[in-house]
UniProtKB/TrEMBL annotation:
<dbReference type="Pfam" id="PF00440">
    <property type="entry name" value="TetR_N"/>
</dbReference>
<keyword id="KW-0238">DNA-binding</keyword>
<feature type="DNA-binding region" description="H-T-H motif">
    <location>
        <begin position="31"/>
        <end position="50"/>
    </location>
</feature>
<protein>
    <submittedName>
        <fullName>TetR family transcriptional regulator</fullName>
    </submittedName>
</protein>
<dbReference type="InterPro" id="IPR009057">
    <property type="entry name" value="Homeodomain-like_sf"/>
</dbReference>
<dbReference type="GO" id="GO:0003677">
    <property type="term" value="F:DNA binding"/>
</dbReference>
<feature type="domain" description="HTH tetR-type">
    <location>
        <begin position="8"/>
        <end position="68"/>
    </location>
</feature>
<dbReference type="InterPro" id="IPR050624">
    <property type="entry name" value="HTH-type_Tx_Regulator"/>
</dbReference>
<dbReference type="InterPro" id="IPR001647">
    <property type="entry name" value="HTH_TetR"/>
</dbReference>
């Protein structure tokens, strides 16, 4: 048990060092030596657990996704029946708690690998929920589940990128979730201020 605690502490220190250094200098300019010096851990110990700094970044992303998924699991049954907004709110709350780690991921550090892994994971989860919801209500989806999920996740990622980089967030997680829920339930025309049908808008110039 003591060894396990030491291992967990070592890995936690290395991950924290990576996040702090990447935020300050960028992934490309951070070396394994930088990480071990910052964490006050030997290079031999680093290589005991990780092949290189990319492997450490991959683990950071995997841990964030695992923590998020653990928080979302209890919400899945209700989400598969209808829009509750709770999974989105939990995502934004988690991002607020792990702000620095999310910023590293969402900035595309590690040549975009962290962001791709994050987006692909969230997309797979969203696509399953959309498909399960359609099956529950016995309706046929009008848009491919994968495309719909990527559009949905893409919106959240873009908002997270903006929100987490603000020194003083202009909106709370609850306010953002409420707006995204309205957008999902009422659509973009409603969000743009239109209450009636889309007649006359389909041939309008793109924004």
């Amino acid at each position: 048990m003591a060894e396990d605690r030491r291992t967990r502490r070592t890995k936690r220190l290395l991950k924290a060092a990576l996040v702090q250094l990447v935020l300050a200098n960028g992934f490309d300019d951070v070396t394994v030596e930088d990480i071990t010096e910052h964490a006050d851990i030997s290079r031999a110990t680093f290589y005991k657990y990780y092949r290189d700094k990319q492997a450490l970044l991959d683990q950071v992303v995997a841990d964030v996704l695992a923590e998020l998924q653990e928080r979302l699991v209890p919400l899945a049954p209700a989400s598969s029946r209808g829009f509750t907004g709770k999974p989105v709110l939990e995502l934004f709350r988690h991002a607020r708690e792990e702000r620095d780690t999310y910023r590293v991921i969402l900035r595309g550090e590690g040549h975009g690998s962290a962001l791709r892994t994050f987006v692909d994971s969230r997309t797979a989860t969203a696509a399953k929920i959309f498909a399960d919801r359609a099956a529950h209500h016995r309706v046929t989806m009008r848009i491919d589940a994968e495309l719909l999920a990527r559009a949905w996740v893409g919106e959240q990622v873009a908002i997270l990128q903006w929100w987490l980089e603000e020194d003083e967030p202009s909106m709370s997680a609850e306010e953002i979730t409420h707006m995204l829920l309205d957008l999902s339930l009422r659509g973009r025309l409603w969000a743009n201020g239109f209450d009636g049908p889309a007649e006359g808008l389909l041939d309008a110039p793109s924004p």
